[in-house]
Amino acid sequence: MAQRASWPRLNRSLCALLVWGVGLTGLPAQQNVVPGSVVSVAPETCRRCHAEYYETWAGSTHAQVSGRLFKSPEKQGCESCHGSGVEHVQSGNRGLIRRFTGMPAEIVESACLQCHQRGKRLYWRGSAHETRNITCTNCHTLHKKPDPAQHLSRFLEKPLETRLLARQTAMEVCFQCHLLQKAQMQRSSHMPLREGKLTCVDCHNPHGTATPKLLLENSVNDLCYRCHAEKRGPFLWEHPPAAENCLNCHTPHGSTNEKLLTVRAPRLCQRCHMRGGHSTLPQSATNRLIYNLVCTNCHSQIHGSNHPSGARLQR
Amino acid sequence: MATKRMLSAALLLCACGPAAQSQDGPAPEVQRLREPPQKTTVEIGVRVAAGDTGVAKFSEYRDLPNGIFIRNLNFFSALPLSGYYLHLRTRENSERDLQSVLTAGAFGRRKIVISWDRLFHTVPTLGRNTYQLTAPGKYVLPGGFQALQGAASQNLPLKRDAVGFGIFLTPRESWDFRMQYSPEKQAGYRPVGNNFMFTAVELPEPVQYRTDDLKLSAEFARPRLVAQASSQTSLFHNDVTTLEWTGPFQQNDPAIPSSGRKALAPNNEAQNFTFAGALDLARAARLVATVSPGWMRQNAAFVPFTSNTFLQAQPNYPALPAASLNGDRQTLMMNYLLTGRVKKQFSYDLRYRAYRLDNQTPSLLFSNYVITDSELPLSTPAAPRSRRNLPYGYTRQSFDADWIWAPNKTSSAKVFYQWESWDRTFRDVLHSDEHTAGASWDWTDRGGGWGVQALLQHGLRRPRQYNAGSIDNAFPAGTGFFTLSQLPRLRRFDEAERSRTYGSVTVQAPQIRSLQLSSSYHVDRSFFNQSGYGDLFDLSDSVSCDLSYPLSKRVSVFADYTFERLHYALRDRQRLDAAPTVPFNDSANNDWESNIRDWIHTWGAGVNAGLLRNRLTLDAYYSFSQGANTTATVALGNPALAGFLVSSAEDYPRLSNRFQRLTASAKFALKDNLFYRIQYEYERYGEIDLALDRATLLPELTAAGAANAGFLGMTLPRYRVQIWSFSLGYSF
Fold first, then answer.
1. Alpha-carbon distance B162 to B186, whole Å?
2. Which of B113, B356, B445, B476 might form a disulfide with B166, Cβ 3.0–4.6 angstroms?
3. Contacts of A132 in chain B (CB under 8 A)
């Protein structure tokens, strides 16, 4: 009975490593000054030639934060992203200013991460997107309005704060590459994404997380419990695959099976339950045991039961 | 405009405290240039929906009443030179289905966010019964079961009301503090199956949930260092913790008890702390570490074994081993990531992850376990009824190593290796390892938008040992003479030996003679080669394509198509438990195999046009999703041999569902800031499903002593709805 998962020594070592990392907070901060920006160019100077870009910047949160929150010169105005404009202004040479079109991913993101390497971007480096050559400008744009012709999905989207997206909605940004997930949203059994009640970033952080699949919580189940707290337990009688991973039975992006099931019942349950009796019969199409809620007609507490007589998850 | 600014100022004063403090930043004349535009857009209209709007499937996640509605309200205002702003967004707003977010604060410094989100979730089942709710969670059936057949149908609605309240403070560039509190209430009904052994009765389960979530976090960030700490608390409360009902079949079979009782979701709580830090090291290396301990607890009082008062009065009625469970699951998540660059072209990622669920819930022994409401446990050796709950737990660890080569500014190649191990308690496999290796190649032309992303990986999962009899831990006195043990060669799919190959290719071609193309192909194949029974394989592949083509400068058309195919196979054995007069029948001649296949096609096409110098915007999109399912089952044994049982191995009728949706709108700008919109929507859904098709014939009554069932009367979800709307929008 005394079965307990052994906790490896490696974890203790890694804890110590974390303490060491935190202890390094006393290190002097690197002076992150862009070379050549000793004399900076005010955005209003840029406006003389780039009025359209200036207008889009001036209406953004970037302009409002500039000078109010960030005091350092390299985080002011246009130069905060485009680097020093002194030589560019003097010579008019386009090559002397940082232009994001055609730049390597690491250069693009280094410009953004000057200010944004915190909060939800803590895990950007090493994330699934970053290691696949995706960079900030694949999803975000500051100066361009999203093209209505690229409004691909026609799904409603819940009101979100403006995040300078390259498409009209956050879901469309994701669907640029995740075409299969876009199609799965159209299926009969679905989460309320196309009704605008949920969106991709309610479950995933595209900038990276500590968990696989860019999930916002520590595990798949922890994420599902955010909305389905009644299934959290702990229960007296657990259903181990359900307590371990909701994705053992459910597929979250859409299914043609009821309740987002990966496989239709009763076959879903029969993959594991072969102890004997009615669960081992193939069951004919006219059998009462495959009507309506199928196995959960009786075993309705499939996520766990707290009833002393509920070992079979019936009550 | 003056009134609007006064209103904004008043709200901001309430939201942000004293506002008239001196502001840092650029000179006032420069700040004026940088003022965000004061913008408000409001669109109000009238909507009429016709057709099968009462069908639950149509209103599964929405409420679309006829009449006046607010399609969109976006109010933004900022106090000049102050940096304070107010932003209100609300969409598709009506009485029962709304979504609003109010944000107020000072740019980059502080903000308050208040949100209200109401979600209707109508379960696609019709309630058709004469049960009366006499107390929370207590149903009586005054008319008897016969009355069910003539009862009227009604939908079972479930409503979620979520309110969010958040404060975000950035007192200095280096510091961030957040507090988010969000209570959510769920109220309504959903169908739930209940039974007395093999007699099933479906009832509307009352749902009265409240969940309170509180999240506090603090962050300190410097150019080379980020440190975060957060706390997350979640409290779940259920007002209705039991469901009791009158037994509907008592008049047919006196052996069936007169009432039943079910324990509903117990109150529970969860707490999580997360500490994370990132540190930039030498040679472009960066270390990120996260440690997140937490727990989930539940200690609701147990209900008695049975609600049958006759059994409760018997002298051998057993006592419960504890008054409550005192359930306690401790969790710990850790993540350590080291990234770095060796040379200009090479970088690496090393990651260790662990998630531990240590189940500290007591393992209680129910020495006289009461299974049914109709009898007390027998104390014969032939049928011992001792049962023990098992506190399942696990530890999942993984180590990832990525090696990335970026030869030029447009492409990168990655090779990677992952080791993942599971340590479980009380499961068939106590330890398993999985090794996965793969490679990806990504090419992106950032100037033109071209891109190719390809990935191929292969993994092998090996359990150290498989013990199909682990479930016997739950039966400390044995499972009884008449009960079979688990099939020895069963391998459960989530623990079994597995060989998995996954591949994907995505191509994005932005301009082939103005045609924009994006397509992808995925393949995922898992084989359970050592599984004698259970899942044999699990295959899926899909192909997707998106096209967009500008017919002219102002008119563009687009289309998309996805085809996904899934195929599962499982092998099982029909086995009969023994009875006093019937011997065991556990023979390979009673094996059967089932193949489950799904095909899903999804089409979409649309047009977007800006005409009359962009004063008229036409927008239309049509999508069609069609899914089909077949389940083919064959008996693998020889019917001529004695003891052959598999008489119900047959192919199920083909199931299908179709969902079509057309949205067309015309938006005409009367002036620069005034427009009207006419919108037409058409939705059609149809489904063929044997599980539901037969259920419409129920409730059924059979002769006394036979199995009975009573369902709520689900109907096949089919609907056809048209929605017209006219709205007027104004921007100022």
1. 9
2. B113
3. 412, 414, 440, 442, 453
Helix (H) or strand (E) holding A105: helix A105-116
d(CA A118, CA B648): 60
Tokens of B570: 């499982």
pLDDT tens digits for range A119-162: 889 999 999 999 888 889 888 888 877 665 555 456 777 766 66
Q: Which two tokens stand for residue B522?
A: 């995925």
Amino acid at A29: A
Q: How far apart are CA B646 and CA B635, in angstroms?
A: 6
Q: Quick check: B508 and B517 in contact, CB under 8 A?
A: yes
Q: Which residue of B has its CA nearest to A138?
A: B446
Give whichever of A84-88, A131-135, B272-276, B552-556 has the largest mean pLDDT. B272-276
Distance CA(B289)–CA(B405), nearest Å, equals 25
Element (H, E) at B388: strand B387-388
Q: Contact B550/A149, CB-based, under 8 Å?
A: yes
**In A, which residues are within 8 Å of B426 by CB distance?**
3, 240
- Nearest residue to B601 (alpha-carbon basis) of A177, A259, A184: A184
**Cα atoms found within 13 Å of the Cα of residue B562, Cβ hemisphere only:** 29
Q: What is the pLDDT of residues B396-446, one digit of tens each?
A: 999 999 999 988 878 899 999 999 999 999 999 999 999 999 999 998 876
Q: Do B277 and A21 touch (CB under 8 A)?
A: yes
Secondary structure class of B165 (helix, strand, coil): strand
Q: Does residue A21 register a pLDDT over 50?
A: no
Of B678, B673, B674, residue with least CA distance to B620: B678
Q: Minimal CA–CA distance to B265: which of A240, A252, A310, A246?
A: A310
Phi, psi (rounded to 5 degrees) for B170 = -130, 80
Any alpha helices (H) in B299-395, and if so which ranges? 309-312
Closest CA to B221 of A81, A106, A58, A75: A75
Q: Do B265 and A230 touch (CB under 8 A)?
A: yes
Nearest residue on chain B to A281, judged by CA atoms? B574
Nearest to A68 among B25, B351, B390 (CB): B25
* pLDDT in the model for residue A25: 34
- The secondary structure of chain A in percent helix, strand, coil, rounded to multiples of 5, reads 40, 5, 55
DSSP state, residue B546: E
Give me the residue label for tokens 């840092």: B24
Q: CA-to-CA distance for B185 and B159, rounded, in angstroms?
A: 8
Mapped onto helix, strand or coil, the DSSP state of residue B367 is coil
Q: What's the mean pLDDT in B559-572?
A: 95
Which neighbouring-strand residues pair with B105? B85, B111
CA-CA distance, B711 to B714, in Å (whole number)? 7
Q: Please state the ipTM of this predicted complex.
A: 0.91
CA pair distance B536, B530, nearest whole angstrom:
9
Q: What integer pLDDT is reported at residue A269 of this predicted model?
A: 94
Indicate which of A122, A231, A261 best probes the interface with B, i.e. most B CBs within 10 Å of its own CB.
Answer: A122
Nearest to A117 among B226, B351, B628 (CB): B226
Q: Which two tokens stand for residue B584?
A: 């065991």
In sequence order, which residues have a C-beta less than 8 Å from that of residue A311 and are 6 or more positions away? A237, A305, B369, B371, B387, B389, B474
How many whole angstroms from its chain centre is CA A91?
A: 43
Token pair, residue B393, equals 């737990």
DSSP for B234-249?
A: EEEEES--EEEEE-TT
Instruction: Report the half-sphere exposure of B358 (CA within 13 A, side-chain side).
Output: 15
Residue B487's alpha-carbon distances to A276, A280, B31, B475, B679, in angstroms, are 9, 11, 76, 16, 59
